[in-house]
Amino acid sequence: EEAQALYAAAHPQSRRVHEAALSSLPGGNTRTGIFFDPFPVAWARGEGATLWDEDGHRRIDFLGEATAGIYGHSHPVIRAAIEAQLDRGWNFGGHTAMEGELAALLCARFPSLERVRLCNSGSEANTFAVQTARVVTGRPAVLGFAGCYHGGFLTFTARDNPLNVPFETVVAPYNDAEATRRLIDAHADRLAAVIVEPMIGGGGCIPAERDFLLMLRERTAQHGIVLIFDEVMTSRLSPGGLQARHGITPDLTALGKYIGGGLTAGAFGGRAELMQGFDPRQAVPLQHSGTYNNNVFTLAAGIAGLGQVYTPEAALALNARGDALRGRLNARCREAGAALQVTGLGSMLAFHARRGEIRSPADAAEGDATLRALLFYDLLERGIYTMPKRGFMALSLPLTEDDHDALDAALQDFLQARRSLLCR
Ligand code: PLP
Fold it and tell me: Which portions of this protein are annotated as coiled-coil regions (predicted)?
């Protein structure tokens, strides 16, 4: 509460922005996942890895738009691509050469993609991947994992199903190969798909164990169930995503976030035979219409980004930097004897306020949520923006070593200032 009061006092303009929006948006907000109390920061401008808010504070952006912001703010190559498109126009109501170019870049990169469809978000990509599996197999149900997030439409919770999952679901425990194998076997003849994040992203950067993923691959193949990797976030973790890193090829993959150069984007695809139904030359093709599926700004920015900026070499370098940063932050926590650690892989990191191994969302839930919230406010006050509540960070290309040093220093301040709470 004290930290929130401090925050509120320092952000009068953000408060005004929030209050003005209350009359038209429920809670003054339209991004549930990154809302925080008493009101979120209203950002005014971004450049490189720096954000300025409406009150004039400067923050280093370690949230990186939850992985979509890999290029940082106003990357010159992305900007040039968008500007060139501005000169050529938009809303053509037809096709351009660019959709094939972006699709070819994606297929060249991600091992499971022989054919791909473009859409507008990770949520859409997962929804269409799941529906593709249901149509192709003629089966009704989908197995997902408690604590995985697949977008606004498809969140598998251990409790009630969300409002709008219009099909039967089976919910399994993440990284528990034995229990999941039993559930797959028990429901095999009803299961169209198994959908999994190969590392849980926003839910705390919890990597799937390779043996667990191998079991999913083996069991789904045996039963004719479509295995879907939701790589909306994790596709950045190697030149070919986590599927390439593990050498495990799913049947379908969902993508999103940075693949549109930081503009609204999504894609889903896989083996040609599974995607064949979308070929519009057939008598009865599968319907996947969408006015903005080939939005020219997304295409131009996505092609420039994947083709020129987030090259395979850049992906390896960014993830190596992430591993080094995680090691450094964890060393600080250990040295301080604090109940705090950083999980993740490569350029995706998440703080957890607890000791011991974190293999599942249940392990993560044992962390001290209040302490982690305190970390968010304390880091923000020291000029570092991370994901509110969840302690999530996604590195962007323009972050410098100085920026990493600044996060390290801010963490050390936190460890010192909150010693009594962290070292119990
Ligand atoms: N899948 C995963 C793993 C995600 O992290 C997200 C977004 O955070 C989504 C899907 C949904 O993507 P979008 O927000 O573009 O709809």
Answer: none
Cα 338 to middle of ligand 1, angstroms: 31
pTM over 0.80: yes
Mean pLDDT by 10 residues, the chain (424 residues): 95 97 95 92 98 98 98 98 98 97 98 98 96 96 93 63 70 96 98 97 97 98 98 98 98 98 98 96 92 97 98 98 98 97 98 97 95 96 94 97 98 96 88
253 touches ligand 1 (CB under 6 Å): no
Give the per-residue pLDDT at 152: 78
Helix (H/G/I), strand (E/B), else coil: 215: helix
ipTM here? 0.99
For residue 409, give the nearest of 60, 36, 10, 34 by alpha carbon. Answer: 60
List all residues 6 or more positions away from 150 whose beta carbon is below 8 Å from its beta carbon: 122, 123, 126, 144, 156, 195, 197, 230, 232, 254
- From the number of C-beta atoms within 10 Å of its C-beta (0-12, 13-18, 19+), residue 80 rates as middle
23 C-alpha vs ligand 1 centroid, how far in Å?
Answer: 28
Distance (Å) from CA 232 to ligand 1 centroid: 6
Cα(68)–Cα(259) distance, integer angstroms: 8
Q: Is the CB of 123 under 6 A from ligand 1?
A: yes
pLDDT at 32: 85
Active site residue 310: no
For residue 121 and ligand 1, the question of a CB distance below 6 A is answered with: yes
* Structural domains of the chain, with CATH: 2-70+311-422 (3.90.1150.10), 76-309 (3.40.640.10)
Pick from 115, 157, 372: which is nearest to 269 by CA? Answer: 115
pLDDT at 155: 61
Sign of torsion over alpha carbons 347, 353, 357, 363: negative
Closest by CA to 297, choosing from 104, 117, 109, 98, is: 98
Is there a catalytic annotation at residue 389? no
Question: How many angstroms separate the Cα of 221 from the Cα of each of 227, 243, 285, 320?
Answer: 8, 16, 26, 33
Nearest alpha-carbon partner for 376 in 48, 49, 41: 41
- 254: which strand partners? 230, 268
Catalytic status, residue 279: no
pLDDT at residue 17, rounded to an integer: 97
**Count of residues for the chain?**
424
Q: Which of 230, 251, 363, 378 is catalytic?
A: 230
